[in-house]
Amino acid sequence: MKKGKLFLFLTLLVMMLVAAGCSDSKDSDGSADSSADKGKEFKVGFAIKTQDSPYFVSLVDAVKEYGEAEGWKVTVLDAGGDTSKEAENMETFISQGVDLIYLDAVEPDAVIPSINKAAEAGIGVINLDSGVGEEAKDITTVYSDNKQNGRLVGLAYAEKMGDEEIVSIVLSGAKGNVAGTERRTGLFAGILEGKLGVSEEEAWELSEELDSQLASKGKAKNEEAKFSVVGQGWGSWTEEDGLKAAEDLITANSNITTVLGENDQMLFGAMTALKNANKDNVDIVAAADGAVEAYDLIKEGKYFATGENSPYKVAELGIKIGKEILVDGKDPESYDEITMTEPAAVTKDNVDEYYEFGF
User: Fold this and answer.
1) Largest Cα–Cα distance of the chain, in whole Å?
2) Nearest to 46 by CA among 125, 131, 141
3) Which of 119, 152, 275, 322 is deepest in the core (most CB within 10 A)?
4) Are residues 233 and 253 in contact, defined by beta-carbon separation less than 8 angstroms?
C-alpha cells in the first residue's frame, strides 16, 4: 500500500509540474507573459533626419547610449535632410524586421506613408524631437514642450524689457516644421502676455494673429505691446545658414533691439552677423535648445535666454516608453499623441541648474 500511494503521489506531482510548465508563459487571462521578453535582445532603428548640428548628434548618441544600456541593438540611419532618403531608411528598418523604430522626421507629412507601412508590419514608431502629420499611425511624439518653452522665455524677456519697445527679427528653421512654429508662436505669446498683462489664453490668440501677419506680409506688429517683428529669415537650424539669413535682415533693419530664434545654432550665426555689422546691445533670445555654448554665453551676459530642449532628456523619455512597450508589454495605443519633457526658460539666474543637460 505504501508503494502504491507513493507511486500515485509522484504521478500527480509530475502531472502538476507539466501543467505548470505549459502555462507559465501565459498570464491568468491567457495572454503572453511579457516577462519572457525581458531577456530578449531587441533590434531598434533610429531614422534621424540629419546630423548637421550638435543637437542631432547628441540625440543620436543619447538614443544609442540609453538603448544599448537596455541590451538593445541600435542601428542609426541618417536621411541627410532628404525625404526620399528618409523613406528608404524607413523601408530598410521595416525589411529588417526591427522591433521598434525611433524617428526624427524631415517633414511632418512626407513621412506619413512610411510610418503607416511600419505600423502595418507590426512595428511601432516613436517620434523624437519633431512631430508628424495627424494621419500617421505612430505611438507618440516625444519632445520638449516647445510652446511652453517659448512662452516662458518670452515672459522672462518681457519682464526684462518692461515698457521698452521691442523691434525684432526672427530666425526660423524650416517652413511648415511643427516644432519651429510652436517655438516661434510661444515666444510671441510670452512677450505679449508679459507686455500686455493679458491671460495666457488671450496671449495665444494674439500670438496666432501676429504669426499670421508675419506669414502674409513678412512683418508683424502689436502696437499696444510695443512689439514688432520686422523680418523673418530661414536658417535651416544651422549656424552657417543662420548667419546668412541674419545678414540681410540686419542690413535692412538697423534699428533692431532683438534677434529671436527657434534654436541656438541659428542665433550663433546671428551673433556673428551682428559682430560683422558692428552692432552692439542687441538681445539674443532663443525659444529652445540648450547648447552648452549658449549656456556659457548666458553666464557671460551675452545671450539672454533659451528654452530647455535637452536631447538627453528627450532620448531618455523615448527609451523609457520603448522599454514599457517591448519589455513590460504596455499597450502602444495607451499613449497620448504627444509626450513632453518639462519646460524651462534658462536664464542667467538658473543656468547652473540646467548646465549638465546641455549638449
Assistant:
1) 108
2) 125
3) 322
4) no
SS3 309: coil
CA angle 117, 120, 124 (to 5 degrees): 85
- Please give the backbone phi and psi of residue 248, each rounded to the nearest 5 degrees, phi first: -65, -40
Q: Which residues, 6 or more positions from 40, have their beta carbon under 8 angstroms from its beta carbon?
A: none
Residues 179, 128 contacting (CB under 8 angstroms):
no
C-alpha span between 76 and 47 (Å, rounded): 6
Instruction: Find all residues with CB under 8 Å of 305, minimum gap 6, and list them.
Output: 153, 156, 157, 285, 286, 298, 345, 346, 347
Tens-digit pLDDT string for the chain (359 aa)? 433 443 444 344 434 443 444 444 334 333 344 444 555 789 999 999 999 878 899 999 999 999 999 999 999 999 999 999 999 999 999 999 999 999 999 999 999 999 999 999 999 999 998 889 999 999 999 999 999 999 999 999 999 999 999 999 999 999 988 889 999 999 999 999 999 999 999 999 999 999 999 999 999 999 999 999 999 999 998 999 999 999 999 999 999 999 999 999 999 999 999 999 999 999 999 999 999 999 999 999 999 999 999 999 999 999 999 999 999 999 999 999 999 999 999 999 999 999 999 99
> Locate cell 507590426: which residue?
122
Question: Are the beta carbons of 261 and 232 closer than 8 angstroms?
Answer: no
CA–CA distance, 68 with 303 (Å, rounded to integer)? 36
Torsion sign (Cα): 110, 111, 116, 117? positive
* Closest C-alpha to 321, from 38, 102, 68, 46: 102
CA angle 298, 304, 310 (to 5 degrees): 65
Q: How far apart are CA 139 and CA 90, in angstroms?
A: 16
Residues near 141 by beta carbon (within 8 Å), at least 6 away in sequence: 126, 127, 128, 130, 131, 132, 337, 338, 339
Residues 149, 155: Cα–Cα separation, whole Å:
10
8 Å CB contact between 291 and 260:
no
Burial of 10 (0-12, 13-18, 19+ CB in 10 A): exposed
Query: Helices 146-161 and 178-196, interaxial angle, to 10°?
Result: 30
